[in-house]
């Protein structure tokens, strides 16, 4: 087998494999009709908010009280928010830091934006508390309520049977007359799980403590057998159980008047952890799904029309080399789209702009080469000699233009926001691919015709 035929076969097979990877649904349609019972796995392209619809949120972290490394604190916020978003079930969420105190959250295809904002901003604080002496509680009540205290005592307010009055007091006066901190909080929690009481069928929350939490909880329960140990969440009591015996296994259960949905939400909040520092929402942008779909359709049409006009221009002005250039552009598009799926790249309108710009650079590289070929053919050289001179003389210009564009893409990617990063990434991938297709694929296509009968038809190349 000649090298020419080998290259042709490799190009055809490689292009088919790339096409199957990029668009397996077309192959799956044929497999379904054949009743083979097998389908190729289909991973869709990852679309950004402006194409799929969704919400773009920008948070600002309050790092004023952070004494150590503020970058670590901001990274900790990012990790916690990412866990919360994953619990919400959003497909392909983007959570990243920006600048010194900004956090960007992109939720594509989300329906309940308010629920997502509430989930991200919540800072659950779990704490176990032990009883405060009644005398101290009475003193605090009188101090806070003054003459209104009258016959209200800590003993009555702190009854485990009814914690609603205690919740009302804490909410009104920001003080707790019943319980004091035990030193065990959410940092001692390993995991939380929703369970149902086998007798009452009521939802409960099973807690598993880590090593530190297990030791502290064992000490607390050992010292308070027969006494109550209150479980607080976000500063309010949610369960006030009586300790029957010391618990050293690191297991605890939160009971209360939960609905299954409330218990599930609480489990998610506990498992996601607390935010290291407070955050505030400073910007919100929501794009409807219909608007995103419209943008996608318009972008696709623009790409198709643009490619058609480019192909027509190349064929009219460069004839046979123009046809080979169009074929090379087809290979270029398959390679780039395969990269987008493999990495994967989140496609946005800015990213599509980067792709189209790199497509123009791929065409520009071919134009430089073909223009040099025309000059050499006009000087009376053979097709083989003209191709060799055209590629060798145009190479420096092609290389320098691609390298400078790639440097610009790298700078944009490393020093800008997510929207511009999408543009820079698609541009960089496209530039590298166009350098390959212009210098290797197009050149190989042209060398296929050397030695054939129409090599002497120079009008096909001018």
CATH T-level fold name of the largest domain: Alpha-Beta Plaits
Uncertain ranges: none
> Which range does the strand content fall in?
15-25%
* Global outline: elongated
SS class: alpha+beta
Helix-strand pattern:
HHEHEHEEHEHHHEEEHEEEHEHEHHH
For the biggest sheet, the summary is: 4 strands, antiparallel
According to DSSP, the number of beta strands is 13
Helical residues, percent: 55-70%
- What is the second-level CATH architecture of the largest domain? 2-Layer Sandwich
Query: Overall mean pLDDT score?
Result: 80
Which strand order spans the largest sheet, edge to edge or round the barrel? 3-4-2-12
Q: What's the level 1 CATH class of the largest domain?
A: Alpha Beta
Distance separating the two termini: 31 Å
- Computed over alpha carbons, the radius of gyration is 33 Å
Please tell me the total number of domains: 2
GO molecular function: protein-transporting ATPase activity
Family: Belongs to the SecD/SecF family. SecD subfamily.
Membrane topology: Multi-pass membrane protein
Subcellular location: Cell membrane
Verbal overview:
Helix content is 56%, strand content 16%. It has 462 residues and is α+β, with helices and mostly antiparallel strands. The protein has 2 domains: 54-132 and 178-284, Alpha-Beta Plaits (2-Layer Sandwich); 288-461, Multidrug efflux transporter AcrB transmembrane fold. The protein has a 4-stranded antiparallel sheet with strand order 3-4-2-12. Helix 1 runs antiparallel to helix 11 and helix 1 (3-22) packs antiparallel against helix 14 (418-448). The chain is elongated and about 115 Å long. It starts with a helix and ends in a 14-residue tail after the last helix. The relative contact order is 0.11.
């Amino acid at each position: 087998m000649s090298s020419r035929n080998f290259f042709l076969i490799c190009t055809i097979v490689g292009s088919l494999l790339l096409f199957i990877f990029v668009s397996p649904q077309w192959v799956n349609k044929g497999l379904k009709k054949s009743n083979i019972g097998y389908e190729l796995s289909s991973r869709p392209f990852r679309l950004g908010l402006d194409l799929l619809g969704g919400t773009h949120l920008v948070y600002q972290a309050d790092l004023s009280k952070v004494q150590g490394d503020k970058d670590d604190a901001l990274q900790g916020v990012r990790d916690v928010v990412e866990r919360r978003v994953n619990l919400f079930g959003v497909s392909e969420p983007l959570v990243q830091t920006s600048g010194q105190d900004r956090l960007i959250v992109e939720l594509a295809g989300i329906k309940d934006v308010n629920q997502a904002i509430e989930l991200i901003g919540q800072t659950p604080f779990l704490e176990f508390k032990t009883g405060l002496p009644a005398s101290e509680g009475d003193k605090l009540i009188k101090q806070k309520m003054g003459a209104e205290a009258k016959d209200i005592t800590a003993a009555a307010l702190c009854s485990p049977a009814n914690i609603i009055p205690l919740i009302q007091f804490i909410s009104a006066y920001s003080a707790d007359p019943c319980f004091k901190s035990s030193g065990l909080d959410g940092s001692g929690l390993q995991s939380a799980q929703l369970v149902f009481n086998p007798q009452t069928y009521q939802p409960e929350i099973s807690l598993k403590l880590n090593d530190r939490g297990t030791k502290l909880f064992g000490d607390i329960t050992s010292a308070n057998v027969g006494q109550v140990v209150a479980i607080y969440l976000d500063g309010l009591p949610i369960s006030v159980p009586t300790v029957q015996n010391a618990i050293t296994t690191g297991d605890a259960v939160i009971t209360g008047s939960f609905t299954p949905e409330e218990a599930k939400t609480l489990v998610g909040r506990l498992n996601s952890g607390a935010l290291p520092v407070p955050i505030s929402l400073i910007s919100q942008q929501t794009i409807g799904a219909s608007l995103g779909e419209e943008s996608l359709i318009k972008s696709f049409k623009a790409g198709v029309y643009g490619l058609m006009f480019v192909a027509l221009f190349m064929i009219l002005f460069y004839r046979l080399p123009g046809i080979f250039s169009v074929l090379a552009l087809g290979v270029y598009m398959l390679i780039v789209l395969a990269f987008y799926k493999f990495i994967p790249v989140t496609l946005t309108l800015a990213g599509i702009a980067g792709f189209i710009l790199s497509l123009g650079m791929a065409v520009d590289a071919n134009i430089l080469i073909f223009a040099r070929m025309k000059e050499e053919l006009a000087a009376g050289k053979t097709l083989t000699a003209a191709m060799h001179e055209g590629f060798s003389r145009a190479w420096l210009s092609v290389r320098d233009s691609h390298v400078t564009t790639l440097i610009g893409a790298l700078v944009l990617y490393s020093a800008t926001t997510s929207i511009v990063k999408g543009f820079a990434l698609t541009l960089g991938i496209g530039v590298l691919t166009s350098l390959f297709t212009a210098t290797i694929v197009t050149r190989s296509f042209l060398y296929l015709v050397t030695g054939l009968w129409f090599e002497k038809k120079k009008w096909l190349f001018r």
